[in-house]
Structures are given as structure tokens and as C-alpha cells.
Amino acid sequence: MKYPAVLSFNDVLPQLDAFDTIIDARSESEFALDHIPGAINCPVLNDEERILVGTTYKQVGSFEAKRIGAPLVSKNIARYIETLFADKPRDWKPLVYCWRGGNRSGSMAHILAKVGWPVVQLDGGYKAFRGYVNTALENPPALDFRVICGTTGSGKSRLLETLDSIGAQVLDLERLAAHRGSVLGHLPGEPQPSQKMFETRIWDRLRRFDPARPVFVESESKKVGNLRVPEVVMERMRASPCIALTLSRPNRVRLLMEDYQHFCADPSALNTQLDHLVQLHGRARIDAWHAMANGGQMPALVDQLLVEHYDPAYLRSIDRNFVQYPNARVVELADIGQEDFLATARDLQSSAM
Prior knowledge:
By secondary structure, this protein is of the alpha/beta class. It is built from 16 helices and twelve strands. The strands form three sheets. It has a five-stranded parallel β-sheet with strand order 1-5-4-2-3. A five-stranded parallel β-sheet has the order 7-8-6-11-12, sandwiched between helices. Helix 13 (267-274) packs antiparallel against helix 14. The chain is globular.
């Protein structure tokens, strides 16, 4: 084969996991928005340089833009060869892409091929990849979803994590979205990904599942924080068999106190989030909850939030949104220890096979 080989994403996909390195040659801001899973970012033009070249193209012309851009591209590619790729063997096989599979990835692929590496350039670039993901999520694979349902604090996320740890197939949408799925679900210090990256993460998980084995997923709403679950994936989940996870309310309070320690340490952050519930509960009740948070009454506050907000909301929505919930298998957790979740996970895994 002559290198660089220019292949479509349909041709690349069967060998996507076999590339030694996937190189995203776009700028750092483009990469941050979304990228092919596992890719590293090696901009041939960084954000500042790309603006300079683009502005020159618009204001002066194509030739002057290329004259300015060429040495920048050359210096950047040379730096990567001297540093990141300096120890790569002769048979190192990278995949390179940019936005449309044009000059940026073409320049890098050409030079890498001249060195002697069997480099592949993605025809159509990220745009072609994104089109493939969109189409795939409109017609996702037929999977045997098992939906873990349960009121807030019943341990659904911990159960999914435990199932994943023992080798079960798990689609953890909250982990992929970096959000716990409620008004208090923002993870401190971990911003949510873009909508595009969220969808890419879902696609990447779905493509790896064995259709002959069940896939455990949580009974999410259509949005996880600010992100939307792809419509067809949500429709498939809502039509699937359910597992009703139950846990006593005192244990649910204990679990939530463990999971939301950051709010215990910073009541003002909790109160900011509680303000989003004013329309539902009125200013007087929110102020009362503020006072409990500021006064260190966190367990009592959590209990009230469960009774007055989360449980009623859950009961209003679960039957309506998950049609097989009335026939759900009921699974009761005795406690919130690691062994309790492990025993439950093993039982679900063995009974689902």
C-alpha cells in the first residue's frame, strides 16, 4: 500500500482500535469540543495561529495566508517528530485527521509517510467521523437493556459501577456526562463535556457491547445535567425490562451524605443549587432549607429533600416513562457497604445470562 493511505471512516472503523496512535491535527479548542476516542491533540496550527492564517486569507488572499501558514505548520510538525514521535519504531502506524481531511492532516500525513511510517489519513476528517456518529445514534445496535430504577439515593450509580467492575456490560450515562443527573448533580471541578463529545462517548460504548449479553443502564431522564441523551437510545431504554432497586430511607440518607460530601463542606454551594427549586417549592421552603444547610443539619435536610422533592418527582415520572416498570424485578439492598453492592451485582449478572 502506498502511504499516506487516504481512507474513509467506514474503512477505518474496523481497524480503529489497532492504530498505534490517533492524531488529531486540529487546534486545541476544536479538540476540546469533541474528538475521536483515544486521540491525542497535535495541532499543526494552534488557535492563535489558525486565527492569524484565517484572517490573512480573508483580508489579503490565499497565497499570503499559505506563505504565513507553511512555516508555522512545518515548525509544529517538526516539533512533534522531535519530541512525541522521536521513539516510534519503523512499523508505528498512526491515523491522522483534521476538520475535513484537507491541508492540516494532509501536511502531517505527508511528512510522516516520508519518514517511512505507514500513516493513514482520514478522508473527510472529523466532519466525516461526526456524520458517521450521528447516523449510528439514529439507528443504534439492538441491545438487551436492563434498566436499573430506584429513588434518589438508592444506590443505582454504585450498583452500575460494581457491575462494571465484575465484567458486566454497563452504559453509565452519568459517568459519560460527568453529572449525577439531578439539580444537585454537578461534579465539583469536573465540567460536563460538550453535547457532541457526550454523543461520541455513548457511540463508543455502544459499539463495543456484545448484543448477546445484557447491558445495564440507569433510568435516566432525557437530560443528564445540560446534556441530552440521544432520542433513539432513550426510546430503547424506556421500552426495556426494569429492575427496581430499593433501600431504606435512613440508608439512602447515609449514601447521599457520602456521595455529596462537597455540599456538606460548602453549604453556600448547596444553597445556590437549591435556589433552582424556588418555582416548585416556593421561597419560604427554600429559605428553610437554606437555614438547615447553614446550621449544619445536613442529614435532616437530605431526608426532607427526599420526602418533599425527589421521591414525589420520581413516583410521578417512573411509570409514565418506563413502560415495563410495573413488572420490574424488585431487588432490595440491606445496606450500603461494598459487599452489599457486590452481592447484588453478582446476582443480577448471573440471573441475566
